[in-house]
Amino acid sequence: MDAVDKILDQWRQARPDLDVSAMGPVGRLSRVFHQNAGRMGKTFARHGLNAAGFDVLATLRRSPAPYALSPGELMASMMITSGTMTNRIEQLAKQGLVTRTADPKDARRGVVKLTKKGFDVIDTAVAEHVETQKALLSGLSDNEIAALDNALRKLMAEAE
């Protein structure tokens, strides 16, 4: 029995009229997310980043060379507000990881680009992040990981 099982038992006793079966997987997903976010955050911190900064740098790094996107393209990729994006870009620029310039093809449009330092930081950080993610799933077999991935894909499709 884990902590979620104990909570479910308490609800079954307190409210036997409710079917709390969905509470188990949702509660476990929530707990696993928070625990994993903390472990991934430690990986990011070793590179002077937080999850938000990592997300921006990773989005730029996986775009084609010269690893540059408009703030709007970044926002669409990460599904965040313009104010949040502006703050993230400003913080990364202060660290020397990105630059903000006008688009040479359209001066009205800004471009956020990885610097050499930003490229090096994200390349190292993403390699360590992949290892952290593997470690997070180390208690599962390859078949269990595939089944979990398929189940979560269905849940995500339904939620979106």
Shape: elongated
Our measurement of the CA-to-CA distance between the termini, rounded to an integer number of angstroms, reads 32 Å
What is the radius of gyration computed over CA atoms, rounded to a whole number of angstroms?
Answer: 20 Å
| CATH homologous superfamily identity of the largest domain | Winged helix-like DNA-binding domain superfamily/Winged helix DNA-binding domain
Helix count equals: 7
> Going across the major beta sheet, what is the strand order?
1-3-2
What is the CATH top level name of the largest domain? Mainly Alpha
Low-confidence region ranges: none
Topology pattern, helix = H, strand = E: HHHEHHEEHH
Beta-strand portion reads 5-15%
CATH topology of the largest domain: Arc Repressor Mutant, subunit A
Mean pLDDT: 93
- Summarize the main sheet: 3 strands, antiparallel
Total count of domains: 2
By CATH, the architecture of the largest domain is named Orthogonal Bundle
What labels describe this entry?
three-stranded antiparallel beta sheet, 160 residues, Arc Repressor Mutant, subunit A, mainly alpha, elongated, 11% strand, 2 domains
Secondary structure blueprint with pairings:
Layout: H1 3-14, H2 23-45, H3 51-61, E1 68-69, H4 71-78, H5 82-94, E2 98-103, E3 106-114, H6 116-136, H7 142-159
Antiparallel strand pairs: 1-3, 2-3
Helix pairs in contact: 2-6, 3-6, 4-5
Summarize the entry for a quick read.
66% of the residues lie in helices and 11% in strands.
